[in-house]
Amino acid sequence: MTVSLLSVIDSKFDKFSKGQKKIAAYVTEHYEIAAFMTAAKLGETVNVSESTVVRFATELGYKGYPEFQKDLQDLIRSKLTGVQRIDVFDAQTKGENIVDNTMKYDSQLLMSTMQSVSKENFDNSVKAIMKAKKIYILGVRSAAFLAGFLSYYFKLIFDNVVLIDVSSDSDIYEDIFRIGKDDVCIAISMPRYSALTIRAVRFMKDRDVNVIAITDNSNAPIAKMSDFVLEAKSGMASIVDSLVAPLSLLNALIAAITLEKGDGLRKDYETLEAIWDEYQVYDKIEEIANDD
Predict the structure, then answer these.
(1) Do the beta carbons of residue 209 and residue 79 sit within 8 Å?
(2) pLDDT digits (tens, 9 = 90+) for 134-143
(3) CA nearest 35: which of 94, 110, 88?
(4) Do 158 and 184 meet the contact criterion of CB atoms below 8 Å apart?
(5) What's the sign of the alpha-carbon dihedral 188, 76, 56, 58?
(6) What pLDDT does 124 receive?
(7) Which helix (H) or strand (E) holds 64?
(8) Are the C-beta atoms of 104 and 110 separated by less than 8 Å?
(9) Distance between CA 122 and CA 46 in Å, rounded?
(10) What are the E-state strand segments in 35-175?
(11) Residue 13 DSSP code
């Protein structure tokens, strides 16, 4: 589809204004970088106004620049190599405050996630988790940290949670070969999409398992095989991905489950607090102050 978009740009090239031709040439040559530039940054790079960049997007049939940018991003982000990511990051942040730039970008991803996540899919995911015989949690590579976070809290809430071992293909299948239609799997997958996650989800769908996909868009590989898709936008910060929005979505999922569990969970936590106190799991502030 990237090739298709570039073909459209090429077919319209002669009709573009002088400024739009500069944009077209740059996007065609450096689309993997242009996809992550704001309209203002792209205009500055090719020495045209921001409004010219916006008109360029509408000339291609988009409602605005964000729609054009999203099309490029969705299509290429999963294909960028580590070296290309560094080039994109350099182009995005040159001459800017890194802290401000990164945190503003994270904020934009959070806002975009709030707008895109389906409340119906979210509510249905909570219901599926609550009635599951076993809850499997899958996340590979950087998504493994998200899976571990969710597993930590779910294991305090449920006694039927399995964090899938992602050390190798064989370890994954040893963890899930007993999985069945009464179980649910929460699969977390962000660009660059792990082939291991895709294969594992395909294995589970062949066994009629309910799969909840937490991924960045509805066209992601595991989304097409899942029962419910929860979109959490991720983005690039140098060679790493921003996982702020996916983590926030997991927080919301844990909070919703907590409300569903109600008084039963309260009793469990009263028991846990007593154990934590007895075995001094957490330091107490007043005791630390007295030691001083």
Answers:
(1) no
(2) 999 999 988 9
(3) 88
(4) no
(5) negative
(6) 97
(7) none
(8) no
(9) 42
(10) 135-139, 161-163
(11) G
Retrieve residue 87's tokens: 């080039």
For residue 185, the cross-strand partners are 136, 211
Q: Which of 160, 162, 184 is nearest to 171 (CA)?
A: 162
Q: Which residue carries 């298709």 as its tokens?
A: 4
**Separation of alpha carbons 167 and 40, rounded Å:** 43
Quote the strand ranges of the chain, DSSP E: 135-139, 161-163, 184-189, 210-215, 228-231, 235-237, 240-242
Give the confidence band of 2 by pLDDT, cuts at 50, 70, 90: very low
CB 167 within 8 A of CB 215: no
Contacts of 39 (CB under 8 A, 6+ apart): 50, 53, 54, 57, 65, 69
Q: How far is CA 215 from CA 57, 146, 218, 226, 249, in A?
A: 27, 12, 8, 11, 11
Please report which helix (H) or strand (E) contains residue 216, including its range: none
Number of separate helices (H) and strands (E) present in the chain: 15, 7
**Number of neighbouring beta carbons within 10 Å of residue 154:** 21
pTM recorded for the entire structure: 0.71
From edge to edge, which strands make up the β-sheet containing 210-215? Answer: 161-163, 135-139, 184-189, 210-215, 228-231
DSSP 20-52: HHHHHHHHHHSHHHHTTS-HHHHHHHHT--HHH
CB atoms within 10 A of CB 77: 24
Query: Which pLDDT tens digit goes with each residue over 59-114?
Result: 999 989 988 887 777 666 655 665 665 666 565 556 566 787 778 878 888 988 99
C-alpha Rg value of the chain to the nearest Å: 23
The one-letter code for the residue type at 139 is G
d(CA 73, CA 71): 6
